[in-house]
Write a structure and sequence with these properties.
Elements lengths: L11 H9 L2 H11 L5 H8 L3 H13 L3 E7 L4 E6 L1 H4 L2 H14 L116 H5 L12 H4 L15
Antiparallel strand pairs: 1-2
Length: 255
């Protein structure tokens, strides 16, 4: 059964499928990138029938992906080599390989691709040709091009906003409903300067009040009799016990 042709569809993806959508086609291109050029080598590596291989090679030649060059005259035999248009399929083929390595290779990649300039295994990435930033579906927007004819981008659903990139450094979480706590006010229990020997500290939460030194306690006798020692000389202890006795001046001896 012959598949439907995409030749009249104004879509670059469909046009690629028109050339390389048949499953044997990209496997032939894969081997061509690996250096296979001869018909018998393609046949032995792919296990494809000679009739189907001939059809696929003719299809690639017709679309300018492969060119044929004779390497023998009697009988005539040909090499099949990639053209510049065919070599331009490398990003497509490599993307298919990387997808298969990630999603369809449970035992690991069958082939490791190394960069000959540095000798390390490599993975191709997509970056913007203008700003050099990585490209993802969320960061791209499709707009009509000069070849658009049938409204390919009309009536498309609204795309969700792009997902934010993960933060590169840790920042405290804050939300509108839960603002971050205000910094604590300093108290007198945490003086900004080293306390002096005569400084008194307090743990009051209200604004600081000047500290007052307590007055020394007065003797009990002074508290009950405040005028006793102010205007009178000190009395002997014997007279202090006799408050009603009148004081007389002492007479000389023998008077």
């Amino acid at each position: 059964m012959r598949r439907k042709s995409f030749q009249d569809m104004h879509c670059s993806v469909a046009q690629f499928l028109e050339v390389g959508g048949e499953w044997w086609t990209m496997l032939i291109v894969r081997d061509a990138f690996l250096g296979v050029t001869r018909f018998d080598d393609f046949h032995d590596r792919l296990g494809i029938s000679r009739n189907v291989l001939t059809q696929r090679l003719e299809h690639l030649i017709e679309h300018g992906i492969v060119e044929r060059a004779a390497y023998q005259d009697k009988p005539v035999r040909y090499d099949y080599r990639l053209t510049d248009k065919g070599r331009a399929l490398w990003p497509v083929l490599n993307a298919m390989r990387q997808w298969g390595d990630q999603w369809a290779a449970p035992d690991g990649p069958p082939v490791i691709v190394k960069h000959t300039a540095c000798g390390h295994p490599t993975t191709a990435i997509h970056i913007c040709s203008a700003c050099q930033k990585p490209l993802t579906p969320e960061t791209l927007k499709a707009t009509p091009g000069p070849g658009a004819k049938d409204g390919l981008l009309k009536n498309l659903p609204q795309r969700p906003p792009p997902r934010p990139n993960p933060p590169t450094d840790h920042k405290p979480h804050s939300s509108p409903t839960h603002p971050p706590p205000a910094p604590a006010k300093p108290t007198l229990t945490q003086p900004t300067h080293p306390p002096s020997p005569n400084t008194r500290t307090t743990t009051q939460a209200h604004p600081a009040q000047p500290a007052h030194e307590p007055k020394p306690a007065q003797p009990a006798l002074q508290a009950t009799q405040p005028d006793q020692h102010l205007n009178h000389p000190a009395r002997p202890a014997s007279e202090a016990t006799q408050p009603g006795r009148r004081l007389r001046p002492s007479s000389p001896a023998g008077a």
